[in-house]
Amino acid sequence: MVTSSSLVYLIGLPLFGSLFLLLMGRKADKWGHLLATAMSAGSFALGLAHFFAMTDRPTEERALTQVLFSWIKVGDFNVDAALLLDQLSISFVLLITGVGTLIHIYSISYMATDPNRRRFFAYLNLFVASMLLLVLGNSYLNLYVGWEGVGLASYLLIGFWNQKPAYATASKKAFVMNRVGDMGLSFAIMIAFATMGTVSFEGVKESVERAGTPALTAMGIMLLIAAAGKSAQFPLQAWLGDAMAGPTPVSALIHAATMVTAGVYLIVRSNFVFDAAPTAQLMVVIVGAITLIFGAVIGMAKDDIKKALAASTMSQIGYMILASGLGPAGYAYAIMHLLTHGFFKASMFLGAGSVMHGMNDEVNMRKYGGLRKFMPITFITFGLGYLAILGVPPFAGFYSKDMIIETALNAGGAKGIILGSLTLIGAAITAFYMTRVMLLTFTGKPRWDENAHPHESPALMWIPMVILSIGSVTSGLLLYRNDTFKNWLAPLFHDHAHHEELVPPIVVSALALTMVAIGVAIALMKYHFKEVAPVAPEDVSWATRFVRNDLGQDSLNETLFMKPGQAITRGLVAMDETVIDGAVRGVGSMAIESGSTLRRTQTGYVRAYAALIFVGALALLTAIWVVTQ
């Protein structure tokens, strides 16, 4: 029987695996990957046990809390290092440990020839442990520790092959941009402490009614900044594409199941703040709407298969952020799409790794073609993920993404028209670029060179892909049927409003499928019925070049932040050299000059010293006489 006292083992198992492998060093090279996989699998098994135990308890008794120790105690302010397992966190626990374990298994074969495989698995375990702490912490401070742990682990994993300068640069870019978002979380915690005197989720929830709207709005905006950094949302999205520098299993772990979903978790967990701060909630919707289009447009122009999937992730997270900004009507659907996305996007990322494995690490899709004949399992599993992300019934995305589109359309008024239109346009663009990925990779004439020898991946790689593809098919229906998942999360949200059905579900599905069909048709005309060049044409329009350049996001960041920052740094360096160092050198020069002057009095002659003593004594006696008169 599982109890609250066993919550710590959910985190403790992968954390132990990470620390043990790092401390053991080369002694664990031969079996370290097996230990790490076992620790992740053990955490998943324990999570399953907690889930089934939770379903057996009455709704009001499902949440469990385990206090580990008193962390901060100053006057009336007290923060415990404590864990909270409720309906929301158990959903993430199963996703993180389940998909994470499959990625561990996949990595055993994928990283088989890497001399640092043990260290890689230690970092994977650290990532899983940090993500579990993030979703299990019962306060913003406990969440913050896991939040920073995820940032550290992602830095280590993205830059794992840091002998390549570009990879090291990519890891630093991700780390720095995430630190910008982390400042938002820091300020949100400070606002909660200053205005409410508490940083626990329950304490903030109870204090919302007496907290002022300006403070709640400020806190909501700071939480949104944090979410934008971690989930690669506008305007902090530029790091995501470069993060593809890490090994492909890292891409699956970060971009599908864990790190990029942390921002969605933060907003939904903080639902009581956003429900009481309409301005901040509106900004969440705006950020999500911009990003879902932004990422989709970028995905259209990417020839790198991993970067195309990364842009897709950015866009799909945008759907989730938008839904979470629609309040109680959208919270459950944001998490539902997050879970289904974890299956089909992890399946496709691992499929991309399988293709790279068979194509001598080539990532340019223009140099693929016709791989379905050589990699049938990869083709089928990737194809199921493709159908799921398009939202084709009865695959997972049909249920989760369509519900977000429906909720957006039912927002009412101009808001509903704008948001509904953007979600439908995003669906069409998604259908176009994902069909492009499928066509360039698996169909058409082979375009690879003589060094490529495409072949199916080993069983340890394709078995996790098969399991994830099953989730791509079934997870949506299982969560949607009879409002199962919505009812599961309902106790965590205050939803007493009546949500009017302005657009019937059948109409929403028809509109979404029509947009998907348009996107697929355009991709077929462009990449199936025409010859595909193995090299991207250079003679293209300025718009195409702009999209290829990620819509100028790096150039904008360099112009607005990097170059002014460099100018300020140069100014500070000049000030340091001239003012601060100059003052220090001036004091030193004065001391040297004074010493040189005084040194002249040291003649070495006794009579000179006697004369100085006489003059000093005479001056002293004169002073005493003057004072005493």
Description:
The chain has 629 residues and is mainly alpha-helical. Helices cover 71% and strands 3% of the residues. A two-stranded antiparallel ribbon has the order 1-2. The longest helix is centred in the C-terminal third of the chain and has 47 residues, at 553-599.
Question: Which features does this protein show?
Answer:
single chain, about 70% helix, about 625 residues, two-stranded antiparallel sheet, mainly alpha, 2 strands, about 5% strand, transmembrane helix
Secondary-structure blueprint:
Layout: H1 7-24, H2 32-56, E1 64-74, E2 77-85, H3 87-110, H4 117-136, H5 140-158, H6 165-196, H7 201-207, H8 213-230, H9 239-242, H10 248-257, H11 262-269, H12 271-275, H13 278-300, H14 305-324, H15 331-358, H16 376-390, H17 396-409, H18 413-442, H19 459-480, H20 484-489, H21 505-527, H22 542-548, H23 553-599, H24 606-628
Antiparallel strand pairs: 1-2
Helix pairs in contact: 1-2, 1-4, 2-3, 2-4, 3-4, 3-10, 3-15, 3-19, 4-5, 5-6, 6-8, 8-11, 8-13, 10-14, 10-15, 11-14, 13-14, 13-18, 14-15, 14-17, 14-18, 15-16, 15-17, 15-19, 16-17, 16-18, 16-19, 17-18, 17-19, 17-21, 18-21
